[in-house]
Amino acid sequence: MADADTVRGAGLPDRLPAGPEASGTAPADPDQAMTLVDHLSELRTRLVRAILAVAVGSAIGFMFAEQLQLFLTSPLPASALPLQTLAIGDAFAIRLRIGVTVGIILAMPVLLYQVAAFVGPGLTAGERRALRPWIPLALFFFVLGVTVAWIILPFTITFLLGFTNAVVVDNLTATNYFDFVTTMFLAFGLLMEFPIVLFGLARVGILSSARLAASRRFALIGIAIFAAVVTPGGDPVSFAVLGATMYLLFELTVFAIRRSGK
After folding, report:
1. Phi, psi (rounded to 5 degrees) for 112
2. 3-state class of 164 per DSSP?
3. Can you say how many angstroms the Cα of residue 97 is from the centroid of all Cα atoms in its chain?
4. Helix H or strand E encompassing 35
C-alpha cells in the first residue's frame, strides 16, 4: 500500500495502540495493534459519520425553520417585529443557519459517541470505565448550556433594547438577530463541555485536583474572559449567568476529580 510505505519512509511509528476497525466494531483483543494508516482511516470514518449526523439534523432543522423562527422571535417585543432583511439572499441564509444550528444540537449524542469511540481504545480499561459516565454527562452539559441560553435570552433582549429611544429605534434585521441567537446557543452549549476536558486531563495525569484548586484565581479570570468574549451582545446579564454557571461547574469538577483520587 503506497500510503503505508510513505509513512514508514518518513520514520513514523508503524504501530499504534489498539482501536476499533474502520467499520466501527472493536477488535476482540483490545491490545491488538493497528497501523498508523488504519488509525487515520478510523479517524476519517468517525468524521464522516459525525458530518452525516449533522447533515441529517440540519435537514430536519431546515424543514422546520419557519416554526423555529416564530419560536426564537417570541422573546422580542412587538415593537421590534417584524424583522427585516436587507439582501435578497438573507432569508435563505437565515434558514440555513437555523438548520445547521439545530443539526449540531440534534447530532450532539452522535458526535460525543464518535469522539468517545475514537479515543477510548487508546485508554486503559480502568480509564475507560472512569470516563464512561462522563459521556452522557457531556450531553447533559451541552443541553444545560443551550437551556441556560434560552432562559436568559428574554432578559438579555430586554436589557439591550432598553437603550433604544426616539432617536435610536429598534428596527432589527433578521440576519443580525438570528446570528445573535444561534451564536449564543452554540457558545453556551459548547463552553459547558469544559468540565469533561478538565476531567480527561486529570485522568491522564496532566492536571490534578490540588493543582486546579491552587489555580482557582486564574481559573476565575479565565472564565470571566471566556464569558465576556463569547457573549454575543456583550450584555452583563449573559456574561454574569454564563460566568457563574461555568465557575460552579469548575468547582464541581474539582470535587469530582478529588473524589476519583487524582
Report:
1. -65, -40
2. coil
3. 16
4. strand 34-35
Q: How far apart are CA 244 and CA 250, in angstroms?
A: 10
**Strand-pair partners of 16:** 34
Q: Show the cell assigned to 9.
A: 519512509
As given in the structure block, the three cell numbers for residue 100 are: 445547521
Integer Cα distance of 228 and 223 in angstroms: 8
Alpha helices in the chain (DSSP H): 2-9, 36-63, 65-72, 90-119, 125-131, 134-161, 174-191, 194-203, 209-214, 216-230, 236-259
Q: How far, in Å, CA of 163 to CA of 14, rounded?
A: 63
Half-sphere exposure of 33 (CA within 13 A, CB side): 6
pLDDT, one tens digit for every residue, the chain (262 residues): 444 444 444 444 444 444 444 444 444 444 455 566 766 887 888 899 999 999 999 999 999 999 999 999 988 888 778 888 888 888 999 999 999 999 999 998 888 888 877 776 666 676 677 667 777 888 888 888 889 889 888 888 888 888 877 777 777 888 889 998 998 898 888 888 888 778 777 776 777 878 888 888 888 888 888 877 777 666 677 778 888 888 888 888 888 888 776 7
- Amino acid identity at 59: A
* CA separation for the pair 251, 260 (Å, rounded): 14
C-alpha cell at 251: 468547582
Termini Cα distance of the chain: 44
DSSP annotation of 218? H
Beta bridge partners of 35: 15
CA atoms of 92 and 101, how far apart (whole Å):
14
The answer to whether the beta carbons of residues 40 and 4 sit under 8 Å apart is no
